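Write out a sequence, fold above all:
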Amino acid sequence: MAAADLQQKWDRAARWYDWGVALLEIAVFRDLRRRLLASAHGRVLEVAAGTGANLPYYPTGTHITAVDLSPAMLEKARRRGVRHASVMDAGVLALPDSSFDTVVSTLGTCTFPDPVAAVREMRRVCRPGGRILLLEHGRSDRPRLAAYQDRKAAGHAKHLGCWWNRDPLETVRSAGLDPYAARRTLFGIIHVIEARA
């Protein structure tokens, strides 16, 4: 799906997105965000920041820069308190090399037209030795569920460009990163990945 189409879809979704994921947020994502983002530090770039759901979980003293393809999603993030926000394509980040201590993306790689290119960009803008923190959903490690995701993937992606059968860990490795921590939860669908640039 082209970036312009994705932008339109997510601009429309901004009105209902937080309500649509509220139960999953409470039951699953809130605790995962809290644990993952506890290790963020310094200058932080959040890619595909959406409505700013991560903001409450960053440690005190971090300086957050948020980017997203959707201006409407970023407007919601600003209302939540994100101060530095720019409309930007994850696959071509208009940011200098090695300019962030931590790069974060949560629930974003499923929608990137080229997720490997996007993760390479995250690696590029992260300083050497910095952290790349990902909370993603993707293809389950349970064969029946994975087969169902594969069968329904194209139909599911029509709505918001979300390919729920991608493998986030494989994406990270294909982008040239070697994760130092990776775990799954919720029937093997949710991936929590930590890597160093």
